[in-house]
Design goal:
Layout lengths: L8 H16 L11 H8 L8 H4 L16 H14 L3 H25 L3 H12 L5 H5 L4 H23 L3 H16 L6 H13 L12 H4 L2 H15 L16 H20 L12 H4 L4 H21 L1 H15 L21 H17 L3 H25 L3 H11 L4 H17 L7 H17 L4 H13 L3 H14 L4 H14 L15
Helix pairs in contact: 1-5, 1-6, 1-18, 5-6, 5-8, 6-17, 8-9, 8-10, 9-12, 10-16, 13-15, 15-16, 16-17, 17-18, 19-20, 20-21, 20-22, 21-22, 22-23, 23-24
């Protein structure tokens, strides 16, 4: 029962659809998380229906941050949802559920078309309930990854249909959805490479030379890519992200290697055995401060597992899974410097490599006469995955619970500690209170102090300590923290604003020694 060959196709489709909807349905009532509050707040504040076309000429963050990304359709989608749904969170999450449903059904169809019929049902069902999809499903900004992935899957499916039928229409659709995908997020740019993988391993494996992998169909993706790059240049001032904003900036070669090992090793861990999930892994001091033993172990074990899979399952399915993972992880592996070390939202497509291998092993057990064992194993994995997904959904139900869980799961992550402190300090704004509660200020102070103990040069934590001092009406202490933050991040608007307020207050009073405290450096 683990493969579609032994299961009615309509029942298989229904079960995959049910898994896709069931896995994160409890998150419909979750709050906005992380960057949602920035993107749906200051970034898109004041944007009405008449201003939507103008978003196509703006960078992703607009005026609220340094221009790093050009994602015109992504920011357009968020703006339309904001206009339609306002502050109601459930409709945003419902959109994500429907997108995930479409992706899961496309995975099932694509695997059938590529000849992985026996493993298709189990692989698609496990993909539908995979806990690594939490960030894509429970954040609004994660929809960019979701719909970029949907475009990739549609493009692959249409390419396969065009090859099988000889018609040009499906291939034209593939080229058009490629343009749409990279308009949502840059990660969709891997579609041509994935079509080459599909062609060489599944569609024309008997061909020889370059023609086995690349045809005129793949060359047709060049036009939409060139158009997007041409649109990107004037918005960002170049084709690549500003390296000074990436983790690789100023790092020696050894640290660059550690970044790659941390990125790829954690990607492997998370697609096979997700744990301690979070929306922000930060600089990962455990992995980058010394030898990343855990990541090295995953990078060592993965080739061994792939080799064993090739021997038992056949070279095609193993090579496809390995190639799929390598191509979909490459954009966020820090080989080319990026803005994150690990981002779970970017592992939506790579998760298919793990579920395909597991599905193929279950299909092998099924074909070997161990159908009951295979069925029990699949059912157990699905129940476990749904339970983990629901657990993550519960931990991420609010901004505060998400950061508290992150601080618990990653105690050496100063960003998590600082962010949790920020929620305690600022949640009185959400409650329409004029001043924060004294107990919230004390708790925030503890979190900011813990963050600074791990990283004394963390500007956000210094700003938090300044906020705590201001809540205690201690402008002198606040100014000290603000000056330290100012040296780390010159001309930061938040620092300059709070510092100006402190200076105005302190200029009206003289210190006990008769000097003006506003002359702090």
């Amino acid at each position: 029962m683990t493969g579609t060959a032994s299961l009615d196709p309509r029942l298989a489709t229904g079960l995959v659809a049910l898994g896709a909807l069931l896995s994160f349905a409890p998150g419909l009532g979750n709050e906005f998380l992380g960057d949602d509050r920035i993107l749906l707040g200051p970034r898109l504040e004041g944007v009405g229906w008449a201003q939507l076309p103008g978003l196509l000429r703006e960078n992703y963050w607009g005026p609220v941050a340094v221009a790093q990304h050009y994602r015109p359709l992504g920011v357009l989608l968020l703006a339309v949802e904001r206009l339609l749904f306002g502050e109601l969170t459930a409709p945003y999450h419902a959109v994500a559920l429907l997108g995930h449903l479409a992706c899961s059904l496309l995975v099932l169809r694509l695997l059938r078309l590529l000849g992985f019929e026996a493993a298709a049902f189990a692989a698609a069902l496990l993909f539908a309930v995979h806990p690594i999809h939490a960030e894509v499903m429970l954040t609004v900004y994660g929809q960019l990854d979701l719909f970029a992935s949907l475009a990739v899957l549609v493009g692959l499916e249409r390419t396969v249909v065009a090859h099988r039928t000889g018609r040009t229409g499906p291939q034209l659709v593939a080229w058009m959805v490629y343009a749409v995908g990279i308009g949502f997020k840059e990660s969709a740019a891997v579609l041509p490479a994935l079509t080459a993988l599909v062609r060489g391993l599944c569609l024309t494996p008997e061909a020889r030379g370059v023609g086995r992998w690349v045809t005129r169909a793949e060359l047709g993706f060049a036009l939409p890519l060139a158009i997007m790059l041409a649109l990107r240049w004037p918005v960002l001032g170049g084709l690549t992200p500003p390296i000074e904003k990436t983790f690789a900036e100023g790092q020696p070669f050894e640290m660059r290697v550690r970044l790659v090992v941390a990125s790829v090793g954690n990607a492997l861990r998370l697609v096979f055995a997700p744990s301690g999930q979070t929306t922000f892994y930060g600089a990962m001091p455990d992995s980058l401060g010394g030898l990343p033993w855990r990541e090295i172990a995953w990078l060592t074990g993965a080739p061994l597992f792939a080799w064993l899979s090739a021997r038992k399952l056949g070279a095609t399915v193993a090579l496809f899974a390995v190639g799929w993972f390598a191509l979909t992880v490459a954009p966020i592996a820090n080989i080319v410097p990026v803005f994150v070390v690990v981002a779970e939202r970017s592992l939506y497509l790579p998760a298919l490599s793990a579920t395909l291998l597991v599905g193929a092993w279950l299909a092998l057990a099924d074909a070997s006469g161990r159908r009951r064992l295979a069925t029990i194993a699949l059912a157990g994995l699905v129940v476990l995955a749904v339970a983990v997904s629901w657990r993550v959904t519960h931990h991420w139900r609010t901004e505060l619970s998400m950061w508290l869980y992150t601080a618990y799961a990653h105690p050496n992550n100063p960003t998590a500690l600082s962010a949790a402190g920020g929620v305690f300090l600022n949640r009185h704004h959400d409650e329409r209170r004029l001043t924060p509660r004294a107990e919230d200020v004390e708790t925030a102070d503890l979190f900011f102090s813990a963050a600074l103990a791990l990283n004394p040069h963390m500007s956000d934590a210094l700003l938090g300590k300044a906020g705590v001092a201001l809540a205690r009406d201690d402008c002198r202490a606040a100014l000290d923290y603000l000056n330290r933050a100012r040296r780390l991040r010159p001309l930061e608007p938040r620092v300059e604003h709070q510092r100006r307020l402190c200076l105005e207050e302190l200029r009206g009073a003289r210190s006990p020694e008769g000097t003006d405290p506003a002359r702090s450096p």
